[in-house]
Amino acid sequence: MKIVFATNNQNKVKEVQSLVPKNITVLSLKDINCEDDIPETQPTIEGNAIQKAQYVKEHYGYDCFADDTGLEVHALSGEPGVFSARYAGPRRNADDNMNKLLNNLQNKEDRSAQFKTVVALILNGEQHTFTGICEGTIIKEKRGDKGFGYDPIFMADGFSETFAQISLEEKNRVGHRGKAVQKLIGFLNTKA
User: Fold this and answer.
1) Residue 16 confidence (pLDDT)
2) Which of 14, 39, 164, 186 could potentially form a cystine with 152 if both were Cys, beta carbons 3.0 to 4.6 Å apart?
3) Interval 123-141: pLDDT, tens
4) For residue 56, with 0-12 CB atoms within 10 Å meaning exposed, 13-18 middle and 19 or more buried, which class applies?
5) Total Cβ atoms within 10 A of residue 63
């Protein structure tokens, strides 16, 4: 089975490729020569994932899955949420985003947060969604050099290291994207 993962983020492609069974080939947007700026204009994480998957199916004809992820910080009423990648502006700079978040949390005691990933799948004309959530805490300074995005300041519940300090395998096991993708893979295995 061949299926497109509608992302330009090579870090996400690597994460997912390390999780899928060998009988499923995951193609990236680059593999199908898609250089389009795929719209993400929905007000929810789920809506953006669905919009991206539908775009690839409609314009390129491939069965496809897409994800959208947001970091939801409780003391900030769920910010940055659907705007996580662009929290500090349109440049999508991870350091700027983390610095803004840390600044906004300076006087907050509650630093609890969750990463939420929604994977939207379009397969054989049907649409399915799979959600993964990882609860944790925003620490006060960046730690670690693995991962991407907010990983250096997010510590999952039960851990003493940030997502940027643990292995990719461990992150996939406990992380939001790994949980959503495991649900996706379980579903795909019933179809493969």
Assistant:
1) 78
2) 164
3) 999 999 999 999 999 999 9
4) buried
5) 19
Q: Are 63 and 122 in contact (CB under 8 A)?
A: yes
Which residue is it, tokens 């700026």?
37
Distance CA 125, CA 22 (A): 24
Task: Please report, for the chain, the start and end positions of each structural domain, with discontinuous segments joined by +.
Answer: 2-191
pLDDT of residue 192: 63
Q: In what order do the strands lie in the sheet with 2-5?
A: 25-28, 2-5, 64-73, 112-123, 126-138, 154-156
CB atoms within 10 A of CB 61: 10
For residue 34, count other CB atoms closer than 10 A to its CB: 18
Q: Check 31, 36, 63, 68 and give the catalytic one.
A: 68
Chunked in runs of 10, what are the mean pLDDT values of the chain (192 residues)? 86 76 86 92 96 96 94 97 93 93 96 97 96 97 92 97 93 90 88 69
Beta bridge partners of 127: 122
| Interacting residues of 112 by C-beta distance below 8 A, sequence separation 6+ | 73, 74, 75, 135, 136, 137, 138
Say yes or no: domain 2-191 is CATH 3.90.950.10.
yes
- 3-class secondary-structure state, position 97: helix
Catalytic residue list contains 151: no
Question: Residue 80 carries which DSSP code?
Answer: B
